[in-house]
Amino acid sequence: MNELKVWNFSEPDEMDNEVWSRFSKVPGAPPAWNYSEFFNDVVDSLCKNKNGLIDGLEGRKSVELINAIYESAETGKEIFLRFTPKKCRLGG
Known about the structure:
Elements: H1 16-23, H2 33-47, H3 56-75
């Protein structure tokens, strides 16, 4: 989670070395710092009966985006995001 392990493309770009040197590691972060912050927020929201930083709708948007990226990579086509959020108990 804190280190980019692979940066290979079929057509190398002149920016590849710069991207690797600048973004391949999270500077000074303990292992999986992003997960620990997320879990701290989940526990805090449960204990204090408050909304967390990320609700169900935001999580669904992320999953849809990742699926669209995969679909685009497989088909070579532009994929439009389909999800239209509406008010529900998950957030929004």
